[in-house]
Specification:
This protein is of the alpha/beta class. It contains nine helices and eight strands. It has a six-stranded mixed sheet, sandwiched between helices. Helix 1 packs parallel to helix 6, helix 4 packs across helix 6 and helix 8 packs across helix 9.
Length: about 325
């Protein structure tokens, strides 16, 4: 019985409709757009803005652009106002709510929008530079052993440094945190998701796949784990593919790009969503000019257009059966 279920799972993941006369449905039906931060969680600060505001503005424009470019795709936002998703009272609960929205909506793609920052102050900051030394007397020792000592001390000069860091980078989840992704995939309703069923009525084999719904699986059993691992590998490759396209489009538009990355500690919201998922750092609010750019209509429109161009390439790629292509990431 276990062998039959496992075989059916593999068939479910690998069967594609090749029969003429049956139109191929779009594999991306729902995109989740997640504006970072919100409410009590402002994110990073620039000189004139907060991350939560800029991320929300870009996200809403991105959703509008996706609806115009891909009218058949449904857009779901994790938030549309200056509140944490689900009116959460803590950042931790908000992260859970973001993932819950995505999984409940049966999303095929999760795009999280953020802004970046350096550790230094926004705009400019002071640094110290040694410009020489001077001899000073210092007392060392205690009691009868106390004595004077001539020492060289550095002489510092403070000077103002402009915060020059600019550019974009896109994150995917950390591969060695995959257990969380498997859980998210299994928790997601079987009725949606990327490339699960091509056309349930096209053949007897696909009809059998359609009947193999979530009730056929013990979500704690080995078959379910194997199924999740198969999807997880596919979702990881697709996440890296889309992230690579996003950064490539940013570079084409003249932006500095730091490429596709993974954080050592992982990114919780990417690991908790049962679908391909990326987090886009759209630029540095700590750089005066880039902050102004990200707050302008021109800048936001260009960021959105770069993501749209990446989505076009991604959608065409996976719908032509080329998902999982090898791309580079750090």
């Amino acid at each position: 019985m276990a062998f039959f279920i496992l075989s059916a799972v593999i068939c479910l993941l690998t069967s594609f409709n090749k029969y003429p006369g049956h139109p191929k449905p779009p594999k991306i039906r729902t995109i989740i757009i997640d504006p970072g931060h919100g409410g009590i969680d402002p994110g990073t600060h620039g000189l004139i803005s907060k991350e939560k505001k800029v991320a929300l503005e870009i996200s809403l424009k991105l959703g509008d652009a996706v609806e115009k470019e891909f009218p058949d795709i449904k857009i779901v936002y994790t938030r549309t106002t200056d509140e944490l998703p689900g009116n959460a009272s803590t950042v931790g609960q908000a992260l859970l709510n973001r993932a819950a929205v995505a999984n409940k909506a049966k999303g095929d793609l999760f795009i999280c929008i953020h802004c970046n920052a350096t550790r230094q102050h926004a705009g400019s900051y002071y640094m110290k530079k040694v410009i020489g030394h001077k001899k000073v007397i210092r007392y060392v020792g205690r009691g009868k052993k106390r004595r004077k000592q001539l020492v060289n001390e550095p002489v510092y000069r403070s000077y103002l440094v402009k915060n020059m860091r600019v550019g974009t980078e896109t994150y995917i989840w950390k591969a060695d945190r995959s257990g969380f992704k498997e859980d998210a995939i299994n928790q997601k309703d079987e009725g949606g998701g990327e490339e699960i069923i091509e056309d349930a009525d096209s053949s007897a084999g696909n009809k059998a796949n359609a009947e193999l719904n979530v009730e056929a699986f013990d979500l704690t059993g080995p078959e379910s784990k194997i199924r999740a691992q198969l999807y997880e590998k596919k979702f990881f490759n697709n996440s890296a593919l889309l992230a690579s396209f996003v950064e490539d489009e940013f570079k084409k538009s003249g932006r500095e790009s730091y490429g596709v990355k993974q954080r050592d500690e992982g990114i919780r919201v990417l690991q908790a969503t049962g679908m391909p998922s990326i987090l886009i750092e759209t630029g540095f609010l700590t750089n005066k000019e880039e902050e102004e750019y990200l707050n302008s209509n021109k800048g936001q429109d260009e960021v959105v257009q770069s993501i749209i161009e990446a989505l076009k390439r991604y959608k065409e790629n996976i719908e032509n059966g080329n998902s999982g292509a090898t791309v580079g990431y750090r």
